[in-house]
Amino acid sequence: MIKGPQIALVAALATLAATAPAQQRPPISAESVISAPPYAEYADLVLAAPVIVDATIRSATRLKGPDAVGVPAGEARLYIEADVLALIRSAAPLPPRIAYVVDVPVDARGRLPKLRKARVLLFARPVAHDGSLIQLVRPDAQRTWAPATDALTRQITREVLATDAPPMITGVGNAFHVAGDLPGTGETQIFLSTDNGRPVSLNIKRRPGEAPHWSVALTDIVDEGAVPPARDTLLWYRLACSLPPALPDSSLATADADSARIAREDYGLVLQSLGTCNRGSTL
């Protein structure tokens, strides 16, 4: 069992994690049932976590005094020891047993949830100089294991680690609309900025008698047969959770009034097609 200074260290790390923004905390218990997990919420966790572990809680010890500084009202800080069942993501191996600290809600009588033998997914980062300790990336980064959340976490991890993974969208660049030969036809192209400089653009075509069609290009070449990204994929997430709610005026600085109006309409069609970024749903 890990004791002494290591408990103080990991408790201090939990205090730091508690300052990070978190969504409404889902219930953490062996009996919790999770269905239809929100893609964006788990994508946030996967992208933030260099270590993702499928584990079973072996013991949970309540921390008090200096080790529980900063615990939110209605919660308790626990020192957890857990047995590793599977390592979903990590640059280095983990020992069979790991330890971490998590803040969990207590009931009206101050009683702790029953966590012993609970199976959990942990989204964490390693602790330097001690391979048996991990630090949760967010206060809500311990999640009850369920087949649906396990499958989604593994799916997103594969997408994130793929060599052709779509980059992070950091902003909207120039936008252009070119009118076609017939009234109501034309094409809008909206360039996006990314964290790694990789070209990404939105392309919206208007043809006679057809609804506007849009696609996204991840290279300088636009694929005429491309379709919008499927919902609950990494490319969908990059767009739905990063694009601003309206086309910035700066993107249309050189456009005339009619072209700017159509470009804004086309951008709105893209947002409507993508739908709401389902980040922060309560599980």
Précis, in short:
It is built from 5 helices and 10 strands. The chain is an alpha+beta fold. α2 crosses α3.
Give the overall pLDDT as a whole number.
88
Q: How much strand content do the residues show?
A: 25-35%
Tell me the number of helical segments per DSSP (H or I, 4 or more residues long).
5
Structural class: alpha+beta
Distance between the termini: 32 Å
User: Biggest sheet: strands, sense, closure?
Assistant: 6 strands, antiparallel
Describe this structure in words.
This protein is α+β, with helices and mostly antiparallel strands. The chain is 22% helix and 31% strand. It contains five helices and ten strands. The strands form two sheets. Strands 1, 2, 3, 4, 5 and 6 form a six-stranded antiparallel β-sheet that branches. Strand 2 and strand 3 form a beta hairpin. About 3% of the residues have low confidence.
Highlighted features:
six-stranded antiparallel β-sheet, four-stranded antiparallel β-sheet, 22% helix, 10 strands
Q: How are the SSEs placed, and which strands pair?
A:
Layout: H1 5-17, H2 39-48, E1 51-63, E2 75-89, E3 97-105, E4 119-127, E5 130-136, E6 142-144, H3 147-161, E7 169-179, E8 186-194, E9 200-206, E10 213-217, H4 234-240, H5 257-274
Antiparallel strand pairs: 1-2, 1-4, 2-3, 4-5, 4-6, 7-8, 8-9, 9-10
